[in-house]
Design goal:
- The protein has 298 residues and is of the alpha/beta class.
- The protein has helices at 23-32, 61-73, 90-106, 131-138, 149-156, 163-174, 219-233, 238-263, 282-286; strands at 8-16, 36-45, 56-58, 81-84, 111-114, 119-120, 123-124, 144-145, 180-186, 193-200, 203-210, 295-296.
- The strands form 2 sheets. Strands 3-2-1-4-5-8-9-10-11-12 form a 10-stranded mixed β-sheet, with helices on both faces. A two-stranded antiparallel ribbon has the order 6-7.
- β9 and β10 form a beta hairpin.
- α1 (23-32) runs parallel beside α7 (219-233), α3 packs parallel to α4 and α7 (219-233) packs antiparallel against α8 (238-263).
Length: 298
């Protein structure tokens, strides 16, 4: 049985050969921040889906079951954290719920970080029958949840038009038993900034997130991994965790954007030029400089 002082994460997400999304966005930052990371790839694609041509394969449910069985038979299934992102079907989500329960038999203190990837900007990009499984089965098992505004609205059935609405949605998610609720991005800001909100144990903070004129893939996966890491490293200091997470994310996003614009000064940036520059920003991941402060709102 593995159980030393090093935090250990099992991350079940998508994988791409080229670029940064899913586990490719999450594993490296977690390792840099001192975590042992075991990863199961729900899909293995050549690139993420913003590219014209997508090739690859999907991990079958029975194949995932075999991998988890192997971990358990070899007694290397002790984890301090469990992280999930994109899931392709209701069946795979139900399977993940079963895995969480098995892992908690080995470590009852396991912290589950759930990024309920379902859509953005008012559109779902997963099958609609995934929603009730997230809402009724998976989300109540989570310790930390990191939806965007649209995903939080889907899970709660409530609309967010202002900050009070956002607080009501957060309250509804807390009522499901989730200790820490993070709205990774909302449309409550202005033309220059989005708003992120994090809430735990009666404390709630908001932070402004500068907008960048480009569409990124993998930022949500990176956000969830960074939040997991900093929540652990700061002993659940929600304000500092939110500030460190946003500082890292924004520095990487801005650097990626600036380098892309050097190659293509005008027009829409193609996917190949906007892959997150994680490796080049290793030092930032290790020690982000906080320039945007979180403000307590409740």
């Amino acid at each position: 049985m593995l159980s030393d002082s090093t935090p250990r994460v099992l991350s079940i997400q998508s994988h791409v050969v080229h670029g940064y999304v899913g586990n490719k966005s999450a594993v490296f930052p977690l390792q840099v921040l001192g975590f042992e990371v075991d990863s199961i790839n729900t899909v293995q694609f050549s690139t993420h889906t913003a590219y014209k041509h997508i090739k690859g394969n999907v991990l079958k449910n029975e194949e995932m079951e075999e991998l988890v069985q192997g971990l358990m038979l070899n007694e290397v299934d002790y984890y301090t954290h469990f992280l999930t992102g994109y899931s392709r079907s209701p069946e795979s989500l139900k399977q993940i719920a079963g895995i969480i329960k098995k892992l908690r038999e080995k470590n009852p203190d396991l912290i589950y970080v759930c990024d309920p990837v379902m859509g953005d900007n008012g559109k779902m990009y997963v099958p609609e029958d995934i929603l009730p499984v997230y809402r009724d089965v998976v989300v109540p098992l989570a310790d930390i949840i990191t939806p965007n505004q649209f995903e939080a609205e889907l899970i709660t059935g409530m609309k967010v038009n202002d900050l009070n609405d956002a607080l009501k949605v957060i309250g509804a998610l807390h009522d499901k038993g989730i200790k820490t609720v993070v709205l990774s991005s909302t449309e409550l800001g202005d033309e220059k900034n989005m708003i992120g909100i994090a809430s735990t144990q009666g404390s709630c903070y908001k932070i402004e997130i500068p907008r960048v004129d480009a569409t990124y893939t993998g930022t949500g996966d990176l956000f969830a991994a960074l939040f997991l890491a900093w929540a652990h490293r700061t002993n659940n200091d929600i304000k500092l965790t939110l500030e460190k997470t946003i500082a890292t994310l924004q520095t990487i996003v801005k650097d990626t954007y600036d380098k892309a614009r050097e190659k293509q000064p005008t027009g829409k940036i193609p996917p190949a030029l906007i892959e997150l520059r994680l490796i080049q920003n290793k030092a930032v991941i290790e020690d982000p400089v906080i320039t945007m402060k979180a403000v307590q709102i409740a």
